[in-house]
Design goal:
The protein has 206 residues and is an alpha/beta fold. Helix content is 46%, strand content 14%. A five-stranded parallel sheet has the order 5-3-1-6-7. Strands 2-4 form a two-stranded parallel sheet.
Length: 206
């Protein structure tokens, strides 16, 4: 199946709605850097080997998800429970060593949308402070002024449609004006309930 580009999209669409993690950029690029920073902190305070700690955190994240990562180093290296809060805080506030890079095809898609004077919305679930921290550390290639961000948790998280209704009201858009680019059942249900079209990110990023 061919990659979907902006030119393949219905020209009547006026607004494009993107989730953040694993739609605009690979979420692991953020998480791995946080683990690297946290492992460095532990090496400094507890003399734990940073490389081994990072590798264990990453392996647990890939195997069982973010919630399992701290338990893995606690079990393997005896890391004190008191450091869990440090990891959780760092996951929200970290200043990363490296910028987060957009998927290349997504960057091209966004640039085409902006060139065509259409609207770009980032509509993301999750902790607003954490999601904003990620957004600030993405290499946007000058697209920042064209991005309109909505944190769904400030109203009601997706799949509830409150945030989409708010966008339509505030930006004078109709359902058929909008296209959601998604990567989850949550977003598909949200788009379906709101009566707007959606395509999976895998059609753009191949």
């Amino acid at each position: 199946m061919a990659t979907v580009t902006y030119n393949d999209v219905d020209p009547g669409k006026k607004a494009f709605i993107f989730e953040l993690d694993n739609v605009l950029y690979p979420e692991k690029d953020y998480v791995y850097q946080v683990y690297y920073l946290f492992a460095g902190l532990l090496e400094y305070t507890e003399l734990n080997d940073a490389k081994a700690t990072t590798e264990t955190l990453v392996a647990a994240y890939n195997d069982k998800g973010e919630a399992a990562a701290f338990d893995a180093i606690k079990d393997k290296f005896g890391v004190d429970e008191k450091y869990r809060v440090n990891l959780n805080e760092l996951m929200v506030t970290a200043k990363l060593p490296l910028k987060l890079l957009l998927f290349q095809n997504v960057l091209t898609f966004l640039q085409d949308v902006v060139t065509d004077r259409k609207k770009v919305f980032i509509v993301t679930n999750g902790d607003p402070a954490k999601q904003l921290n990620k957004i600030k550390q993405i290499e946007w290639h000058g697209l920042e002024p064209y991005l309109i961000c909505y944190f769904a948790n400030e109203t009601v998280p997706k799949p509830e449609t409150d945030v989409l209704e708010k966008i339509m009201q505030e930006h004078n858009l109709t359902r058929r004006d909008m296209l959601m680019i998604e990567n989850s059942e949550t977003d598909r249900l949200c788009a379906e309930s709101a009566g707007i079209d959606c395509i999976n990110i895998s059609n753009i990023v191949r």
